[in-house]
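Newbie here. two chains, one complex. Structure please?
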Amino acid sequence: MDYADTADPVADTAQRHVTALYQAHALALARLALVILGDHAAAEDVVQDAFLGLYRRWDSLDDTSAALGYLRTSVLNGCRTAIKRRSRPAITASGAPLESAEASVLLGEEHRAVLAAIRRLPARQREALVLRYYADMTEEQTARAMGVSRGAVKSATSRAIAAVGRMLREGS
Amino acid sequence: MNPVEDQVRAATRAQAQTLREVRPLRLTQAPQTAAWRRPGARARRTRIFKTWIAPATAAAAVIALAIALVIVRDIPNGRVAPPRPAVTGTGVPPYYVAVTGPIGWYAYAPLSPSPSPPNVLVIGETLTGKRLATVTPPSGSRFVGVTGAADDRTFVVSTMRTSLTASPALAVTWYLLQIAPGGGYILQRLDIPDMRSWGVQAIALSGSGRELAMTLARAKREAGSPDFELRIYSVATDKLVREWSTNDESVLGPGITVPGPQDQGLTWVDGDRALVFPTLVRVSRHGEIIERPTERRIDVTAASGDLIANSRVIWSLPLSPGAAAADRCDPFGASVTADGKTVLCTSRTLAHGRVTLAWLAFSASAPHVPRVLYKVTVAPPRAYAVVVAFLWSDASGSTSIVEWAVARTISPSTTHYGAVSHGRFRPLPPLPGFIEAQPKAAW
Protein backbone atom coordinates (compact mmCIF):
# COMPACT_ATOMS: atom_id res chain seq x y z
CA MET A 1 0.00 0.00 0.00
CA ASP A 2 1.40 3.34 -0.95
CA TYR A 3 0.82 6.52 0.92
CA ALA A 4 -1.77 7.63 -1.56
CA ASP A 5 -3.80 4.56 -0.75
CA THR A 6 -3.48 4.82 2.98
CA ALA A 7 -6.90 4.90 4.51
CA ASP A 8 -5.72 6.27 7.84
CA PRO A 9 -4.29 9.79 7.48
CA VAL A 10 -2.87 9.68 11.01
CA ALA A 11 -0.91 6.54 10.23
CA ASP A 12 0.22 8.06 6.96
CA THR A 13 1.56 11.16 8.69
CA ALA A 14 3.21 9.12 11.39
CA GLN A 15 4.88 6.88 8.86
CA ARG A 16 6.26 9.78 6.90
CA HIS A 17 7.60 11.61 9.89
CA VAL A 18 8.94 8.61 11.74
CA THR A 19 10.68 7.39 8.64
CA ALA A 20 12.19 10.82 8.10
CA LEU A 21 13.43 10.83 11.66
CA TYR A 22 14.85 7.39 11.17
CA GLN A 23 16.70 8.46 8.08
CA ALA A 24 18.13 11.44 9.88
CA HIS A 25 18.94 10.04 13.28
CA ALA A 26 18.99 6.26 13.33
CA LEU A 27 22.70 5.87 12.79
CA ALA A 28 23.64 8.42 15.40
CA LEU A 29 21.30 6.84 17.91
CA ALA A 30 22.53 3.36 17.05
CA ARG A 31 26.07 4.51 17.58
CA LEU A 32 25.11 5.95 20.91
CA ALA A 33 23.52 2.65 21.89
CA LEU A 34 26.52 0.75 20.58
CA VAL A 35 28.89 2.73 22.74
CA ILE A 36 26.72 2.04 25.77
CA LEU A 37 25.99 -1.62 25.04
CA GLY A 38 29.02 -2.71 23.05
CA ASP A 39 26.93 -4.90 20.76
CA HIS A 40 25.95 -3.91 17.22
CA ALA A 41 22.85 -6.07 16.98
CA ALA A 42 21.62 -5.07 20.40
CA ALA A 43 22.16 -1.41 19.62
CA GLU A 44 20.14 -1.69 16.44
CA ASP A 45 17.37 -3.54 18.25
CA VAL A 46 17.13 -0.79 20.83
CA VAL A 47 16.93 1.87 18.16
CA GLN A 48 14.34 -0.04 16.15
CA ASP A 49 12.23 -0.39 19.26
CA ALA A 50 12.52 3.32 19.99
CA PHE A 51 11.29 4.24 16.54
CA LEU A 52 8.51 1.69 16.64
CA GLY A 53 7.45 3.13 19.97
CA LEU A 54 7.42 6.60 18.50
CA TYR A 55 5.38 5.38 15.55
CA ARG A 56 2.79 3.81 17.79
CA ARG A 57 2.50 6.91 19.92
CA TRP A 58 2.78 9.51 17.20
CA ASP A 59 -0.82 10.67 17.33
CA SER A 60 -0.61 11.15 21.08
CA LEU A 61 2.45 13.38 20.95
CA ASP A 62 1.63 16.91 21.98
CA ASP A 63 4.68 18.35 20.36
CA THR A 64 6.10 16.42 17.44
CA SER A 65 9.12 18.67 17.38
CA ALA A 66 10.12 16.96 20.61
CA ALA A 67 10.30 13.63 18.83
CA LEU A 68 14.08 13.54 18.79
CA GLY A 69 14.22 14.05 22.53
CA TYR A 70 11.68 11.30 22.93
CA LEU A 71 13.78 9.01 20.77
CA ARG A 72 16.97 9.74 22.63
CA THR A 73 15.31 9.05 25.94
CA SER A 74 13.77 5.88 24.54
CA VAL A 75 17.15 4.67 23.38
CA LEU A 76 18.69 5.32 26.77
CA ASN A 77 15.81 3.54 28.45
CA GLY A 78 16.16 0.70 25.99
CA CYS A 79 19.85 0.42 26.77
CA ARG A 80 19.11 0.24 30.49
CA THR A 81 16.50 -2.43 29.90
CA ALA A 82 18.83 -4.36 27.67
CA ILE A 83 21.56 -4.30 30.27
CA LYS A 84 19.14 -5.52 32.91
CA ARG A 85 17.88 -8.31 30.68
CA ARG A 86 21.27 -9.68 30.02
CA SER A 87 21.75 -12.92 31.82
CA ARG A 88 25.47 -12.47 31.45
CA PRO A 89 27.38 -9.33 30.70
CA ALA A 90 28.80 -9.13 27.20
CA ILE A 91 32.30 -9.22 28.50
CA THR A 92 34.71 -12.06 28.30
CA ALA A 93 36.65 -13.34 31.24
CA SER A 94 39.51 -11.15 30.19
CA GLY A 95 37.31 -8.11 30.34
CA ALA A 96 37.34 -7.52 26.62
CA PRO A 97 34.00 -6.77 25.02
CA LEU A 98 32.67 -9.30 22.57
CA GLU A 99 33.05 -7.80 19.15
CA SER A 100 32.96 -8.85 15.57
CA ALA A 101 36.12 -9.74 13.74
CA GLU A 102 35.86 -6.52 11.80
CA ALA A 103 35.48 -4.45 14.91
CA SER A 104 38.39 -6.19 16.54
CA VAL A 105 40.59 -5.14 13.68
CA LEU A 106 39.17 -1.65 13.65
CA LEU A 107 39.75 -1.08 17.32
CA GLY A 108 43.19 -1.04 18.76
CA GLU A 109 44.20 -2.50 22.07
CA GLU A 110 44.04 0.76 23.93
CA HIS A 111 40.51 1.46 22.73
CA ARG A 112 39.41 -2.02 23.69
CA ALA A 113 40.76 -1.60 27.19
CA VAL A 114 38.95 1.69 27.62
CA LEU A 115 35.70 0.30 26.26
CA ALA A 116 35.94 -2.73 28.51
CA ALA A 117 36.39 -0.40 31.46
CA ILE A 118 33.40 1.70 30.42
CA ARG A 119 31.27 -1.41 30.19
CA ARG A 120 32.13 -2.35 33.74
CA LEU A 121 30.69 0.91 35.04
CA PRO A 122 27.27 1.07 36.65
CA ALA A 123 24.63 1.90 34.07
CA ARG A 124 24.09 5.50 35.15
CA GLN A 125 27.78 6.31 35.20
CA ARG A 126 28.20 4.67 31.83
CA GLU A 127 25.35 6.70 30.34
CA ALA A 128 26.65 9.94 31.75
CA LEU A 129 30.11 9.24 30.49
CA VAL A 130 28.95 8.36 26.99
CA LEU A 131 26.63 11.33 26.71
CA ARG A 132 29.25 13.75 27.98
CA TYR A 133 32.32 12.50 26.14
CA TYR A 134 30.99 10.66 23.10
CA ALA A 135 27.92 12.75 22.32
CA ASP A 136 29.52 15.97 23.56
CA MET A 137 26.44 16.93 25.52
CA THR A 138 26.66 19.57 28.18
CA GLU A 139 25.87 18.65 31.76
CA GLU A 140 22.48 20.28 31.34
CA GLN A 141 21.69 18.36 28.17
CA THR A 142 22.88 15.14 29.72
CA ALA A 143 20.74 15.75 32.76
CA ARG A 144 17.67 16.28 30.59
CA ALA A 145 18.38 13.18 28.53
CA MET A 146 18.90 11.03 31.60
CA GLY A 147 16.08 12.55 33.58
CA VAL A 148 18.31 13.42 36.51
CA SER A 149 19.70 16.58 38.06
CA ARG A 150 22.76 18.38 36.75
CA GLY A 151 24.52 17.63 39.98
CA ALA A 152 23.86 13.95 39.56
CA VAL A 153 25.39 14.08 36.10
CA LYS A 154 28.44 15.86 37.41
CA SER A 155 28.87 13.34 40.17
CA ALA A 156 28.30 10.32 37.94
CA THR A 157 30.71 11.59 35.33
CA SER A 158 33.40 12.35 37.83
CA ARG A 159 33.10 8.93 39.43
CA ALA A 160 33.05 7.25 36.04
CA ILE A 161 36.24 8.94 34.90
CA ALA A 162 37.94 8.05 38.14
CA ALA A 163 36.80 4.44 37.86
CA VAL A 164 37.91 4.10 34.27
CA GLY A 165 41.29 5.57 35.12
CA ARG A 166 41.63 3.15 37.99
CA MET A 167 40.70 0.15 35.84
CA LEU A 168 43.14 1.17 33.14
CA ARG A 169 45.95 1.51 35.66
CA GLU A 170 45.10 -1.85 37.18
CA GLY A 171 45.03 -3.45 33.77
CA SER A 172 48.28 -1.98 32.54
CA MET B 1 40.78 17.60 29.85
CA ASN B 2 42.63 14.84 31.61
CA PRO B 3 44.15 11.87 29.79
CA VAL B 4 41.37 9.50 30.81
CA GLU B 5 38.77 11.83 29.34
CA ASP B 6 40.78 11.90 26.14
CA GLN B 7 40.95 8.13 26.09
CA VAL B 8 37.23 7.80 26.69
CA ARG B 9 36.44 10.24 23.93
CA ALA B 10 38.77 8.54 21.46
CA ALA B 11 37.68 5.00 22.29
CA THR B 12 33.95 5.67 22.18
CA ARG B 13 34.25 7.50 18.89
CA ALA B 14 36.39 4.77 17.42
CA GLN B 15 33.83 2.21 18.42
CA ALA B 16 31.00 4.32 17.04
CA GLN B 17 32.81 4.47 13.73
CA THR B 18 32.64 0.70 13.46
CA LEU B 19 28.91 1.08 12.94
CA ARG B 20 28.48 2.47 9.47
CA GLU B 21 24.96 1.41 8.71
CA VAL B 22 21.73 0.48 10.35
CA ARG B 23 19.16 -1.89 8.99
CA PRO B 24 15.98 -0.42 7.55
CA LEU B 25 13.16 0.54 9.82
CA ARG B 26 10.25 -1.84 9.62
CA LEU B 27 7.10 -0.14 10.69
CA THR B 28 4.28 -2.50 11.45
CA GLN B 29 0.80 -1.78 12.65
CA ALA B 30 1.39 -3.91 15.70
CA PRO B 31 5.10 -3.65 16.32
CA GLN B 32 6.70 -6.25 18.46
CA THR B 33 9.54 -5.53 20.78
CA ALA B 34 12.67 -7.00 19.34
CA ALA B 35 13.84 -9.94 21.33
CA TRP B 36 17.06 -9.46 23.19
CA ARG B 37 19.83 -11.56 21.83
CA ARG B 38 22.07 -13.52 24.05
CA PRO B 39 25.42 -11.84 24.49
CA GLY B 40 27.74 -13.13 21.86
CA ALA B 41 24.97 -14.81 19.93
CA ARG B 42 25.22 -14.33 16.22
CA ALA B 43 22.79 -11.83 14.85
CA ARG B 44 20.37 -13.21 12.31
CA ARG B 45 21.84 -10.86 9.79
CA THR B 46 25.35 -9.74 10.27
CA ARG B 47 25.04 -7.30 7.42
CA ILE B 48 24.15 -3.98 8.92
CA PHE B 49 22.13 -1.62 6.88
CA LYS B 50 22.67 2.03 6.36
CA THR B 51 20.16 4.58 7.41
CA TRP B 52 19.16 5.66 4.01
CA ILE B 53 15.73 4.22 3.81
CA ALA B 54 14.26 7.50 2.85
CA PRO B 55 10.93 6.99 1.21
CA ALA B 56 10.57 9.43 -1.55
CA THR B 57 7.66 11.66 -2.24
CA ALA B 58 7.70 14.33 -4.87
CA ALA B 59 9.15 17.59 -3.73
CA ALA B 60 7.53 20.87 -4.45
CA ALA B 61 10.71 22.71 -3.81
CA VAL B 62 12.37 24.23 -6.83
CA ILE B 63 16.04 24.70 -6.55
CA ALA B 64 17.06 28.30 -6.81
CA LEU B 65 20.75 28.52 -7.22
CA ALA B 66 21.69 32.02 -8.14
CA ILE B 67 25.25 31.26 -8.89
CA ALA B 68 26.83 32.77 -11.88
CA LEU B 69 28.15 29.46 -12.99
CA VAL B 70 24.72 27.93 -13.21
CA ILE B 71 23.13 27.87 -16.58
CA VAL B 72 19.87 26.00 -16.79
CA ARG B 73 18.90 24.98 -20.23
CA ASP B 74 17.69 21.99 -22.11
CA ILE B 75 19.98 20.20 -24.43
CA PRO B 76 18.34 19.37 -27.75
CA ASN B 77 17.66 15.73 -28.40
CA GLY B 78 17.55 14.81 -24.78
CA ARG B 79 19.28 16.03 -21.72
CA VAL B 80 22.35 13.94 -21.80
CA ALA B 81 25.39 14.59 -23.87
CA PRO B 82 27.08 11.58 -25.40
CA PRO B 83 29.97 10.12 -23.44
CA ARG B 84 33.45 11.32 -24.17
CA PRO B 85 36.79 10.01 -23.13
CA ALA B 86 37.16 11.10 -19.56
CA VAL B 87 40.54 10.42 -18.15
CA THR B 88 43.56 12.51 -17.53
CA GLY B 89 47.03 11.46 -18.48
CA THR B 90 47.26 9.72 -15.13
CA GLY B 91 44.22 7.59 -15.84
CA VAL B 92 41.89 9.25 -13.37
CA PRO B 93 38.89 11.37 -14.37
CA PRO B 94 39.55 15.12 -14.38
CA TYR B 95 36.51 16.14 -12.32
CA TYR B 96 34.86 14.99 -9.16
CA VAL B 97 31.52 15.95 -7.67
CA ALA B 98 31.39 15.62 -3.90
CA VAL B 99 28.68 16.00 -1.32
CA THR B 100 30.21 17.61 1.72
CA GLY B 101 29.15 18.21 5.25
CA PRO B 102 26.24 16.67 7.08
CA ILE B 103 24.35 14.28 4.90
CA GLY B 104 21.93 13.07 7.48
CA TRP B 105 22.74 12.08 10.96
CA TYR B 106 25.64 14.46 11.29
CA ALA B 107 23.34 17.39 10.98
CA TYR B 108 21.96 17.03 14.43
CA ALA B 109 24.13 18.13 17.28
CA PRO B 110 24.81 17.19 19.96
CA LEU B 111 24.95 13.67 18.57
CA SER B 112 27.40 14.80 15.96
CA PRO B 113 30.78 13.43 16.92
CA SER B 114 32.64 16.38 15.55
CA PRO B 115 32.04 19.77 13.93
CA SER B 116 31.05 19.42 10.32
CA PRO B 117 31.50 21.54 7.23
CA PRO B 118 28.33 22.73 5.49
CA ASN B 119 26.30 20.43 3.30
CA VAL B 120 27.03 21.56 -0.23
CA LEU B 121 27.87 20.07 -3.58
CA VAL B 122 31.42 20.70 -4.71
CA ILE B 123 32.69 20.35 -8.25
CA GLY B 124 36.43 20.10 -8.34
CA GLU B 125 39.50 18.95 -10.19
CA THR B 126 40.77 15.54 -9.23
CA LEU B 127 44.45 16.16 -9.82
CA THR B 128 44.75 19.62 -8.30
CA GLY B 129 41.95 19.53 -5.77
CA LYS B 130 40.89 22.92 -7.07
CA ARG B 131 37.29 23.76 -6.25
CA LEU B 132 35.51 24.85 -9.41
CA ALA B 133 32.03 25.42 -8.10
CA THR B 134 30.01 25.11 -4.92
CA VAL B 135 26.28 24.48 -4.97
CA THR B 136 24.09 24.94 -1.93
CA PRO B 137 21.00 22.78 -1.47
CA PRO B 138 17.48 24.16 -1.47
CA SER B 139 16.28 25.41 1.88
CA GLY B 140 15.18 22.56 4.10
CA SER B 141 17.01 19.99 2.00
CA ARG B 142 20.38 18.31 1.94
CA PHE B 143 22.41 16.80 -0.80
CA VAL B 144 22.53 13.10 -0.09
CA GLY B 145 23.67 11.24 -3.19
CA VAL B 146 25.74 11.59 -6.31
CA THR B 147 26.55 9.21 -9.13
CA GLY B 148 28.42 9.78 -12.37
CA ALA B 149 28.37 8.59 -15.95
CA ALA B 150 31.41 7.36 -17.83
CA ASP B 151 32.08 10.72 -19.46
CA ASP B 152 32.97 12.38 -16.13
CA ARG B 153 30.75 15.28 -17.13
CA THR B 154 27.31 13.91 -16.44
CA PHE B 155 26.10 13.27 -12.91
CA VAL B 156 22.85 12.76 -11.07
CA VAL B 157 22.58 14.21 -7.59
CA SER B 158 19.79 13.86 -5.09
CA THR B 159 18.50 16.01 -2.29
CA MET B 160 16.27 15.07 0.55
CA ARG B 161 14.04 17.30 2.59
CA THR B 162 15.02 17.40 6.20
CA SER B 163 12.37 19.64 7.65
CA LEU B 164 9.66 17.77 9.45
CA THR B 165 7.42 20.77 9.33
CA ALA B 166 7.45 20.84 5.58
CA SER B 167 5.18 18.65 3.57
CA PRO B 168 6.03 16.29 2.13
CA ALA B 169 8.78 15.70 4.63
CA LEU B 170 10.47 12.79 2.97
CA ALA B 171 10.82 13.97 -0.56
CA VAL B 172 13.84 13.01 -2.59
CA THR B 173 14.46 15.26 -5.53
CA TRP B 174 16.77 14.38 -8.39
CA TYR B 175 18.91 16.68 -10.46
CA LEU B 176 20.94 16.18 -13.57
CA LEU B 177 24.31 17.89 -13.32
CA GLN B 178 26.47 18.43 -16.34
CA ILE B 179 29.91 19.91 -16.09
CA ALA B 180 30.76 22.30 -18.87
CA PRO B 181 34.27 22.97 -20.12
CA GLY B 182 36.06 25.25 -17.69
CA GLY B 183 34.10 24.08 -14.72
CA GLY B 184 30.72 25.74 -15.29
CA TYR B 185 27.78 23.50 -14.90
CA ILE B 186 24.20 22.91 -15.85
CA LEU B 187 21.81 21.73 -13.20
CA GLN B 188 18.35 20.54 -14.11
CA ARG B 189 15.68 19.11 -11.95
CA LEU B 190 14.44 15.71 -13.01
CA ASP B 191 10.82 14.73 -12.60
CA ILE B 192 11.39 11.19 -11.55
CA PRO B 193 8.11 10.20 -9.94
CA ASP B 194 7.41 10.01 -6.29
CA MET B 195 8.56 6.71 -4.85
CA ARG B 196 6.19 6.92 -1.94
CA SER B 197 6.91 4.38 0.74
CA TRP B 198 10.09 3.12 -0.87
CA GLY B 199 13.46 4.17 0.47
CA VAL B 200 16.29 4.83 -1.94
CA GLN B 201 19.42 2.87 -1.13
CA ALA B 202 21.95 2.72 -3.93
CA ILE B 203 22.00 4.69 -7.15
CA ALA B 204 24.01 4.20 -10.31
CA LEU B 205 23.98 6.31 -13.44
CA SER B 206 24.62 4.32 -16.59
CA GLY B 207 27.83 4.86 -18.48
CA SER B 208 25.94 6.76 -21.15
CA GLY B 209 24.20 8.88 -18.57
CA ARG B 210 20.85 8.01 -20.06
CA GLU B 211 19.49 5.74 -17.34
CA LEU B 212 19.46 5.94 -13.59
CA ALA B 213 19.31 2.65 -11.70
CA MET B 214 18.41 2.51 -8.07
CA THR B 215 17.71 -0.05 -5.41
CA LEU B 216 14.87 0.58 -3.03
CA ALA B 217 13.57 -1.04 0.11
CA ARG B 218 10.08 -0.72 1.42
CA ALA B 219 10.10 1.17 4.67
CA LYS B 220 6.97 -0.49 5.89
CA ARG B 221 6.82 -4.21 5.36
CA GLU B 222 3.51 -5.36 3.99
CA ALA B 223 2.34 -8.91 3.71
CA GLY B 224 2.34 -10.12 0.16
CA SER B 225 4.30 -7.17 -1.16
CA PRO B 226 7.92 -7.16 -2.24
CA ASP B 227 10.40 -5.60 0.13
CA PHE B 228 13.09 -4.79 -2.38
CA GLU B 229 13.11 -3.39 -5.88
CA LEU B 230 15.63 -2.58 -8.56
CA ARG B 231 14.39 0.13 -10.90
CA ILE B 232 15.70 1.87 -13.96
CA TYR B 233 14.48 5.34 -14.86
CA SER B 234 15.14 7.18 -18.08
CA VAL B 235 17.03 10.39 -17.40
CA ALA B 236 15.72 11.84 -20.63
CA THR B 237 12.03 11.18 -20.00
CA ASP B 238 11.93 10.57 -16.23
CA LYS B 239 9.89 7.45 -16.92
CA LEU B 240 10.26 4.10 -15.22
CA VAL B 241 11.88 1.79 -17.74
CA ARG B 242 12.29 -1.48 -15.85
CA GLU B 243 11.39 -2.75 -12.42
CA TRP B 244 12.28 -5.97 -10.68
CA SER B 245 11.30 -6.95 -7.18
CA THR B 246 11.94 -9.63 -4.63
CA ASN B 247 11.54 -10.64 -1.03
CA ASP B 248 14.74 -12.64 -1.12
CA GLU B 249 16.56 -11.98 2.11
CA SER B 250 19.98 -12.20 0.49
CA VAL B 251 19.23 -9.12 -1.56
CA LEU B 252 17.92 -7.11 1.30
CA GLY B 253 21.31 -7.09 2.94
CA PRO B 254 23.84 -5.33 0.82
CA GLY B 255 21.25 -3.45 -1.11
CA ILE B 256 20.80 -1.02 1.73
CA THR B 257 23.38 1.56 0.99
CA VAL B 258 23.77 5.25 1.03
CA PRO B 259 23.14 6.55 -2.46
CA GLY B 260 26.59 7.35 -3.65
CA PRO B 261 29.57 6.03 -5.46
CA GLN B 262 31.37 4.70 -2.46
CA ASP B 263 28.74 2.00 -2.27
CA GLN B 264 29.93 0.51 -5.50
CA GLY B 265 27.31 -2.08 -4.90
CA LEU B 266 25.18 -1.35 -7.94
CA THR B 267 27.07 -1.20 -11.20
CA TRP B 268 26.27 -0.89 -14.88
CA VAL B 269 28.33 -3.32 -16.91
CA ASP B 270 28.89 -4.40 -20.50
CA GLY B 271 28.13 -1.11 -22.14
CA ASP B 272 25.02 -0.53 -20.05
CA ARG B 273 23.54 -3.83 -21.13
CA ALA B 274 23.37 -5.23 -17.61
CA LEU B 275 23.42 -4.30 -13.97
CA VAL B 276 25.30 -6.08 -11.22
CA PHE B 277 24.11 -5.94 -7.66
CA PRO B 278 25.48 -7.54 -4.50
CA THR B 279 23.84 -10.08 -2.27
CA LEU B 280 24.87 -11.87 0.87
CA VAL B 281 24.08 -15.56 0.63
CA ARG B 282 23.88 -17.51 3.84
CA VAL B 283 25.83 -20.73 3.72
CA SER B 284 26.71 -23.32 6.30
CA ARG B 285 30.39 -23.85 6.79
CA HIS B 286 31.86 -26.09 9.47
CA GLY B 287 28.63 -25.86 11.39
CA GLU B 288 28.55 -22.11 11.30
CA ILE B 289 26.23 -19.99 9.19
CA ILE B 290 28.14 -17.33 7.34
CA GLU B 291 27.08 -14.75 4.81
CA ARG B 292 28.98 -14.97 1.58
CA PRO B 293 29.31 -11.90 -0.65
CA THR B 294 27.87 -12.77 -4.03
CA GLU B 295 27.37 -10.67 -7.14
CA ARG B 296 24.34 -11.14 -9.37
CA ARG B 297 23.85 -9.85 -12.90
CA ILE B 298 20.61 -8.91 -14.57
CA ASP B 299 20.31 -7.96 -18.22
CA VAL B 300 18.42 -4.73 -18.57
CA THR B 301 16.46 -6.16 -21.47
CA ALA B 302 14.91 -8.70 -19.12
CA ALA B 303 11.25 -8.10 -18.65
CA SER B 304 10.19 -6.48 -15.43
CA GLY B 305 9.36 -9.05 -12.81
CA ASP B 306 11.19 -11.19 -10.32
CA LEU B 307 14.68 -9.96 -9.56
CA ILE B 308 16.14 -13.31 -8.58
CA ALA B 309 14.55 -15.31 -11.36
CA ASN B 310 15.78 -12.84 -13.96
CA SER B 311 19.32 -12.54 -12.63
CA ARG B 312 22.21 -14.94 -12.23
CA VAL B 313 25.18 -15.29 -9.93
CA ILE B 314 28.41 -14.22 -11.58
CA TRP B 315 30.77 -14.32 -8.60
CA SER B 316 30.92 -15.50 -5.03
CA LEU B 317 33.67 -14.90 -2.57
CA PRO B 318 35.87 -18.02 -2.57
CA LEU B 319 35.66 -20.01 0.63
CA SER B 320 38.54 -22.33 0.00
CA PRO B 321 40.06 -23.63 3.23
CA GLY B 322 43.54 -22.56 2.26
CA ALA B 323 42.67 -19.00 1.39
CA ALA B 324 45.07 -16.59 2.97
CA ALA B 325 43.60 -14.11 5.40
CA ALA B 326 44.84 -11.30 3.21
CA ASP B 327 42.83 -12.71 0.30
CA ARG B 328 39.54 -12.49 2.12
CA CYS B 329 37.40 -9.58 1.12
CA ASP B 330 35.86 -7.34 3.70
CA PRO B 331 32.29 -8.48 4.05
CA PHE B 332 30.88 -5.38 2.41
CA GLY B 333 31.79 -3.32 -0.54
CA ALA B 334 32.71 -5.78 -3.29
CA SER B 335 32.01 -4.25 -6.67
CA VAL B 336 32.24 -5.17 -10.32
CA THR B 337 34.08 -3.10 -12.88
CA ALA B 338 32.17 -1.63 -15.80
CA ASP B 339 33.51 -4.23 -18.21
CA GLY B 340 31.90 -6.87 -16.02
CA LYS B 341 35.09 -8.90 -15.85
CA THR B 342 36.60 -8.01 -12.51
CA VAL B 343 35.36 -7.95 -8.95
CA LEU B 344 37.11 -5.49 -6.68
CA CYS B 345 37.23 -5.69 -2.92
CA THR B 346 39.41 -4.69 -0.02
CA SER B 347 40.87 -6.66 2.84
CA ARG B 348 42.44 -5.84 6.15
CA THR B 349 44.53 -8.08 8.33
CA LEU B 350 46.28 -7.66 11.61
CA ALA B 351 49.33 -9.81 12.21
CA HIS B 352 52.38 -9.44 14.40
CA GLY B 353 51.29 -6.00 15.46
CA ARG B 354 51.07 -4.67 11.94
CA VAL B 355 48.02 -3.85 9.86
CA THR B 356 47.99 -4.82 6.20
CA LEU B 357 45.45 -3.27 3.87
CA ALA B 358 44.98 -4.67 0.40
CA TRP B 359 43.00 -3.76 -2.69
CA LEU B 360 42.14 -6.97 -4.49
CA ALA B 361 40.81 -7.91 -7.92
CA PHE B 362 39.17 -11.22 -8.79
CA SER B 363 39.03 -11.74 -12.53
CA ALA B 364 36.46 -13.80 -14.36
CA SER B 365 39.21 -16.05 -15.68
CA ALA B 366 40.57 -16.78 -12.18
CA PRO B 367 37.67 -16.16 -9.81
CA HIS B 368 39.27 -17.90 -6.83
CA VAL B 369 42.62 -16.17 -6.60
CA PRO B 370 42.75 -12.41 -6.34
CA ARG B 371 45.36 -10.15 -7.78
CA VAL B 372 46.74 -7.65 -5.32
CA LEU B 373 46.37 -4.26 -6.96
CA TYR B 374 48.03 -2.51 -4.08
CA LYS B 375 49.00 -3.34 -0.55
CA VAL B 376 50.23 -1.32 2.36
CA THR B 377 51.48 -2.53 5.72
CA VAL B 378 51.87 -0.16 8.61
CA ALA B 379 52.57 -0.32 12.30
CA PRO B 380 49.47 1.13 13.91
CA PRO B 381 49.49 3.46 16.87
CA ARG B 382 48.36 2.01 20.17
CA ALA B 383 44.77 3.00 19.58
CA TYR B 384 43.66 3.25 16.03
CA ALA B 385 40.90 3.00 13.48
CA VAL B 386 41.15 1.65 9.94
CA VAL B 387 39.72 2.88 6.67
CA VAL B 388 40.26 1.05 3.39
CA ALA B 389 38.12 1.54 0.29
CA PHE B 390 37.84 1.85 -3.43
CA LEU B 391 36.32 5.19 -4.36
CA TRP B 392 36.38 4.82 -8.13
CA SER B 393 37.81 2.50 -10.74
CA ASP B 394 38.05 2.55 -14.48
CA ALA B 395 36.17 0.11 -16.66
CA SER B 396 38.74 -2.64 -16.33
CA GLY B 397 39.91 -1.99 -12.79
CA SER B 398 43.44 -1.20 -13.92
CA THR B 399 43.32 2.29 -12.41
CA SER B 400 41.49 3.11 -9.21
CA ILE B 401 41.07 5.93 -6.75
CA VAL B 402 41.41 4.59 -3.24
CA GLU B 403 41.64 5.79 0.30
CA TRP B 404 43.18 4.36 3.41
CA ALA B 405 43.99 5.30 6.94
CA VAL B 406 45.36 3.61 10.01
CA ALA B 407 45.31 6.26 12.67
CA ARG B 408 44.13 7.24 16.08
CA THR B 409 41.72 9.70 14.54
CA ILE B 410 40.37 9.55 11.03
CA SER B 411 40.73 12.98 9.49
CA PRO B 412 41.91 14.57 6.27
CA SER B 413 45.44 14.71 7.62
CA THR B 414 45.54 11.01 8.46
CA THR B 415 43.72 9.69 5.40
CA HIS B 416 45.55 8.87 2.21
CA TYR B 417 43.83 9.42 -1.11
CA GLY B 418 45.41 8.38 -4.30
CA ALA B 419 45.35 6.68 -7.62
CA VAL B 420 46.45 3.06 -7.81
CA SER B 421 47.74 1.80 -11.10
CA HIS B 422 50.26 -0.93 -11.92
CA GLY B 423 50.87 -1.56 -8.26
CA ARG B 424 51.78 2.02 -7.49
CA PHE B 425 50.02 4.54 -5.30
CA ARG B 426 50.09 8.15 -6.43
CA PRO B 427 48.71 10.62 -3.85
CA LEU B 428 45.87 12.92 -4.82
CA PRO B 429 44.72 16.10 -3.05
CA PRO B 430 42.12 15.40 -0.38
CA LEU B 431 38.51 15.91 -1.23
CA PRO B 432 36.77 18.88 0.35
CA GLY B 433 34.33 18.71 3.19
CA PHE B 434 35.81 15.62 4.67
CA ILE B 435 33.37 13.86 6.94
CA GLU B 436 34.71 11.04 9.00
CA ALA B 437 36.10 8.32 6.82
CA GLN B 438 34.07 8.17 3.69
CA PRO B 439 33.92 11.01 1.23
CA LYS B 440 30.75 10.97 -0.81
CA ALA B 441 32.01 11.72 -4.25
CA ALA B 442 31.63 10.59 -7.83
CA TRP B 443 33.91 10.77 -10.80
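Moderator note: Helices of chain A lie at 9-37, 40-57, 67-85, 101-106, 109-119, 123-134, 139-146, 150-171. Residues 131 and 137 of chain A are 6 Å apart (CA to CA). Thread marked as resolved.
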